[in-house]
TrEMBL record:
Record membrane topology: Multi-pass membrane protein
Species of the source: Rhynchosporium secalis (Barley scald fungus)
Taxonomic path: Eukaryota, Fungi, Dikarya, Ascomycota, Pezizomycotina
Keywords linked to the UniProt accession: Membrane, Transmembrane, Transmembrane helix
Transmembrane domains' residue ranges: 60-79, 85-103, 177-197
Name this protein carries in UniProt: Outer spore wall protein RRT8
PANTHER family (alphabetical): OUTER SPORE WALL PROTEIN LDS1 (PTHR34292)
Length: 290
């Protein structure tokens, strides 16, 4: 009996150490890439480049209207049921934690709905405007017509879209969100897990536009994302945390788009640790040469 317990304990330690080493490797990869900084860089770049404000300002009123409707509806229909559950988990703090939970849920729903029905073109314009500002017009020309002339305003150089890249809202995304939502009922740890899971999904969609401009196939995109899981998860986690801030989620949706575009521009300009790894395109090129 004692021998069996010792073996089980040793196996548990082995598994725990293996998971710890994997987590350590992912954290190290994320730190080297600096991807977690791009959402923050996006905020400062957006604030310092007023020309990038145009897409946000053009959608401000309808987005604020949507926000009011969603927040009111969530407090009318979701607050009390969640409070009834959290009373057993958080005790006297339940009222406060339920308010925070409802606000974070509202922010997520506002983000999902607005990105799908209101902001798609505006976010594309913002992403493309940053690429123009960072002199990455070569890759941008694969997905957009660019006006001739040396304009000081990068947004003025944007012509007609050749193809709209951002994925629209899908039932799968909403179902995944609902599945993970109960994690928030677990104090602290549950919320951390929820943000991490949402962060990975958010990170994987950060460069949808960039992948389209590069004309990568689905296998190429999957290979790149798999090879760079840690950087994209780090970016997505920080972006998710920013977008969960009540009443500021739309602003951070735009700044995160700016951050993603800055990251893409750095990859194109070989100005990031991620470019030390070969892209799917270059790997295929190497195979053809061989």
């Amino acid at each position: 009996m004692s021998s069996t317990m010792d073996k089980a304990s040793a196996k548990a330690r082995e598994v725990a150490m293996e998971d710890f080493n994997k987590a350590k490797a992912l954290a190290s990869s994320a730190a080297r890439s600096g991807a977690y900084l791009y959402p923050i860089k996006g905020v400062f770049y957006f604030l310092s480049h007023k020309t990038l404000w145009k897409p946000l300002l053009s959608k401000l009123f309808p987005t604020l209207s949507l926000s009011v409707v969603v927040v009111v509806a969530m407090f009318l229909f979701a607050y009390l049921p969640q409070l009834a559950v959290l009373v057993f988990v958080n005790g006297p703090l339940a009222a406060f934690t339920t308010i925070l939970l409802t606000l974070s849920e509202s922010s997520t729903l506002i983000n999902l709905l607005s990105r799908t029905f209101l902001l798609q073109d505006a976010l594309v314009d913002t992403f493309d405007g940053v690429l123009v500002s960072r002199r990455q017009t070569a890759v941008l020309s694969e997905g957009r017509q660019l006006k001739s002339g040396n304009f000081n305003d990068p947004m003025e150089k944007l012509g007609k879209l050749i193809k709209s890249p951002f994925e629209k809202f899908t039932p799968k995304a909403f179902i995944r969100y609902i599945m993970y939502l109960p994690l928030n009922f677990i104090p602290v740890v549950g919320t951390v897990i929820f943000v991490a899971l949402q962060g990975r999904t958010r990170g994987n969609s950060a460069h949808t536009r960039y992948f389209q401009l590069k004309k990568w196939s689905n296998p190429q995109k999957e290979a790149w994302l798999k090879e760079n899981t840690a950087p994209y998860t780090a970016f997505g986690t920080v972006a998710t945390l920013l977008e969960l801030i009540p009443f500021a989620s739309i602003f951070f949706t735009f700044t995160n788009t700016v951050g993603a575009a800055l990251w893409a521009a750095d990859i194109e300009g070989n100005n990031t640790a991620m470019t030390e790894m070969s892209t799917p395109s270059s790997r295929e090129g190497d195979k053809k040469v061989e």
